[in-house]
Amino acid sequence: MRIGQGFDVHAFGEGDHIMLGGVRVPHDRGVLAHSDGDVVLHALCDAMLGALALGDIGEHFPPSDPRWKGADSTDFLRHCDALLRERGWRVGNADVTVVCERPKVGPHALAMRERIAGVLGVPADTVSIKATTTETLGFTGRREGIAAQAIVLVRAL
Ligand SMILES: Nc1ccn([C@@H]2O[C@H](COP(=O)(O)O)[C@@H](O)[C@H]2O)c(=O)n1
Ligand SMILES: C[C@@]1(CO)OP(=O)(O)OP(=O)(O)OC[C@H]1O
C-alpha cells in the first residue's frame, strides 16, 4: 500500500454553477480556472499522483497547454487512474474534504462519490466526500473561493 495527499484552491468568478467531484452544482458564482476548475478532482488527482511520486497535475496537464482549456476534470482523473493501473496499482480508498461556506456540499456528496467511483472503477463506499466551512474566516469564509483536500490509499492490483 502507498498513500498520497492533494490540495487545490480556485477563486470564485462569474457563473451560475461549479463542478465538484464531476457533478454540476448550482451556485451563484462560477470558478476561475484553465480547466473546469473542479477542486475535488484536482486534489484527488494530486493525491493519486503523490502516492506513486509521479509529480503533480500541473506537470501532467500544464495550464499553458490550450488542450486543457475548459477541460472536463474527469478526463484528468481517468488519466491518473490509468497511470496507477499500468504500474500495478489502484485506488483502495479516498477521503476528500471540501472547504467553503457555500454551496452546501452535503446534498451532492452521494452523486459525487458515485461519479468518482464510476470513473475509478471502485465501489462507491471506498470514496468519501466531506465538507466544512471555516466559520466565516479566511478566503473561504469570505466566499472568495473554494478549496479541497484529498487523501488516497493505493493498493496493488
Ligand atoms: N459547504 C459546506 C460546508 C459544510 N457542510 C456541512 O455542514 C456541517 C457543518 O459545517 P461546519 O463548518 O459548521 O462545521 C459539515 O459537517 C457538513 O456536513 C456542507 O454540507 N457544505
Ligand atoms: C488543471 C489545470 C489544467 O491545466 O489547470 P486549472 O484548471 O487552472 O487548475 P489547477 O488546479 O490550477 O491545476 C493546474 C492544471 O493542471
From TrEMBL:
**Superkingdom in the source lineage:** Bacteria
Which EC number(s) does the record attach to this protein? Answer: 4.6.1.12
Question: What does this protein need as cofactor?
Answer: a divalent metal cation
Query: InterPro entries from the entry?
Result: MECDP_synthase, MECDP_synthase_CS, MECDP_synthase_sf
Q: Which family does it belong to?
A: Belongs to the IspF family.
- What is its quaternary makeup? Homotrimer.
Descriptive protein name: 2-C-methyl-D-erythritol 2,4-cyclodiphosphate synthase
The species this protein belongs to is Marilutibacter penaei
